[in-house]
Design goal:
With 363 residues, the protein is mainly α. It folds into 2 domains: 232 residues, no CATH class; 101 residues, abc type-2 transporter like fold. It contains 13 helices and 4 strands.
Amino acid sequence: MKATLTFTWIQIKRMFRDKMAMFFTIVFPLIFLFVFGTIFSNSSNAQFDIAIINNAGNDFTTEFIKSFEKKDSLKIVDVSSLDDAKEKMGRGEIDSIIEVPAGFGEPNDQQIPHGELAVYYDEAEPQAGQTLASVMSGVLDEINIGVTKIEPPFKVVQKSTTTTGVSQFDYTFAGLLAFSMMTMSIFGLSNQLPSEKKTGALRRIKATPFRPRQIIIGMTLSYLVLTIVSLSVMIVVGTLAFDFDMHGNWLILAAFAILGALVMSGFGMAVAGWARNENQSAPLTQIIAFPMMFLSGTFFPRFIMPEWLQSITNWIPLTPVSDGVRMIVTENAGIVELLPQIGLLGAWGLVIYLIAFRVFRWE
């Protein structure tokens, strides 16, 4: 065991001295974090870019349009005409157009201001226009009550569930943590060991009393340390830069992350131990990693998949890692709730390490 731990410590020092290895350990996962963080961190603060064509030009419509400027969810874009606005909407520069017709707000025969707004939307992406039309309906309902002094007999009341919500970034960030475990363990291990076989470094170790199991355990432990470092950096940056909100227990997350990283390292060691060189390890790594990457729910929720595909993806090794991390981070899951994921990871770990010990080759 002492020799194994010494080998582990040597591998860790080698990795920290290797600038390229440090790039893929620290910087590469952060690139994904900043990309997805930038996309999803402000998703709850949706803003519509709109153009307003005021053909009425009276005092009522002037005050009506000014009320839009106070809404954080609306940004008014200057346009010269309706055709100009349509052209900009066709290029995606604005989300919707509000046309105020001539005579809007003028009193009718009962001396009550009236009128009809036109809200334009793009047929290719109708959601923005339809959402804005709902907003306008709510605004006009308030004006109608103020003018007629009559409360509508039926209305909708919004109520909070009184539960703490999960932002889209928090949900995606949990998947990124699982993705980082896989890339560090599988891609890292499957590249390093075949390279050392090619240079003959592993052959020299073979001449010593060192055993294959010590190689496998030592390499696994060294990459486990690097994975924990990478996850820690991601969590710190996610918290400081994108307000990551941890809903669960940190100790449970740490223990589950160690288990997930160990299982993922088993796949990396199985490929690395079997492959004679990088030409063999690279395609096999991709065959293993890419289905896990896109079918385990790391980036896209599995509930949007067909039921038959969900049944298959339940057994993908990265699926219990993604589900478990997400349950801890977003649902404050405890050990009892995580037992199905822990059991499946334990089974995969047993199988893959038996394979790794069996197929290991020195050169």
